[in-house]
Write a structure and sequence with these properties.
By secondary structure, the protein is α+β, with helices and mostly antiparallel strands. It has 15 helices and eight strands. α6 (about 150-165) runs antiparallel to α7, α7 (about 175-190) runs antiparallel to α8 (about 200-210) and α9 (about 220-240) runs antiparallel to α10 (about 245-260). The two termini are about 40 Å apart. The structure holds iron/sulfur cluster.
């Protein structure tokens, strides 16, 4: 088995009750079969509490006020304190570590929805590297009977070229995002038109292209704003229609709508220009935003892009990455306005982990978004 992980992966340490949030609230924690079996045999009063606080039919911990029933007032886990780390279920033991499974390959990542992981990812100044290792484990072949290995290796090659473009710091971030979006659209075209044999040449073209003169077609000029303003409102409606995990998210979305869009296009344009001009930071931090945007794009592409081997939706995976980075920035503009036009690192990490928690950690939300983005691509 081949493993891939970002270079910062092993540095993660949970800050437990000093965490600005907790992963034991707001969503249901699914318990694996082995842990369910162990919990059913714990003796004494704590065993009784355990058995009474599990929804055995669903295989999840019961919740009180949307918090796991074992999360105590100090934000410590009672199972951990009573029975030790080894008694945690698979979900609690592994979070925020995430695994994407492919034939012969497991890709490990830290999810952005954990505040500490978000800080690590956004605070990383160097270009992210992916470390490869091998073990003797073998796949269960039946799980991958229909796995399209050729498509997967083309996706991996495409992702390497995308990483190379996204990490080209000689270009401004918008140009890099624009170029990788084009690459994904061209790849999708080859898949749709059944001419995958052209993909190698396509990747060669993107990887050897002289990008020093790449125009930034995402510049905010007045004409763009006509379209951009209506687009953002449509996208906001989509986000607002998704399942909620935390009530605070509703407030963040509502503030964004009222601060950014309620005064019309002209006001939106001026706000964006002012934010772009200062980036909400002083000049020292402007470069930081570009690096953070790069790390976010790298995160979303690493986590999702190769998953299109299962559904052929290559372009939509890239659209999701761009949508996410765009919307994190949109929410940051609103936060910048709320904070008298200042923005600190903790504001950025908070918006990022909240976005990831709401959008990425609900299968239902992810499905709705993918479908919506795929339809928009068709249009
Ligand atoms: S969200 Fe992250 S840092 Fe916070 S308690 Fe969970 S794993 Fe620890």
């Amino acid at each position: 088995m081949r493993y891939l992980k970002p270079h910062y992966y092993d540095d993660f340490k949970c800050t437990a009750n000093s965490c600005p949030d907790t992963c034991c609230a707001g969503w249901q924690i699914v318990i694996d079969d082995k842990s369910l079996e162990n919990y059913s045999q714990v003796p004494g009063a704590f065993g009784t509490r355990l058995r009474n606080s599990i929804d055995w039919q669903e295989g999840v911990f019961c919740q009180y006020d949307r918090r796991c029933s074992f999360l105590n007032e100090e934000n410590f886990c009672d199972i951990y304190q009573e029975l030790g780390e080894g008694a945690l279920c698979e979900t609690c033991r592994s979070y925020p570590r995430h695994v994407e499974e492919y034939e012969g390959l497991r890709e490990l990542s830290l999810t952005l929805s954990c505040p500490v992981a978000a800080e690590m990812i956004l605070g990383c100044k160097e270009k992210v590297r992916f470390l490869e290792s091998f073990t003797d484990e073998e796949d269960d072949f039946e799980d991958y009977e229909d796995f399209d290995f050729l498509m997967f290796s083309q996706l991996e090659d495409a992702r390497d070229v995308i990483f190379q473009i996204l990490q080209d710091r000689n270009l401004d971030l918008r140009s890099r995002i624009h170029t990788v979006s084009d690459l994904a659209a061209d790849f999708q075209h080859c898949v749709d038109e059944d001419c995958r044999y052209e993909i190698d040449a396509l990747l060669e073209k993107y990887s050897s292209a002289d990008r020093s003169h790449t125009a930034c077609s995402l510049n905010f000029d007045p004409e763009d704003y006509e379209d951009l303003y209506s687009r953002r409102i449509e996208e906001w409606e989509l986000l607002n229609s998704l399942e909620r995990l935390r009530p605070e998210w509703s407030e963040i979305l509502a503030n964004c709508r009222s601060l950014l869009y309620s005064q019309g296009k002209e006001s939106y344009k001026n706000l964006c220009r002012e934010f772009q001009g200062s980036c909400g930071f002083d000049s020292k931090h402007r470069d930081s935003w570009s690096i953070m945007g790069e790390q976010l794009m790298m995160f979303f592409v690493y986590t999702y892009f190769c998953g299109s081997v299962y559904d052929d939706m290559v372009r939509t995976k890239m659209e999701f990455a761009v949508f996410s980075v765009t919307w994190i920035q949109e929410l940051l503009i609103a936060r910048w306005l709320e904070n008298d036009k200042t923005l600190g690192f903790s504001d950025i990490t908070e918006i990022v982990w909240r976005y990831a928690r709401e959008v990425e950690h609900s299968d239902q939300n992810l499905d709705i978004m993918e479908e919506w983005l795929a339809k928009r691509d068709l249009c």
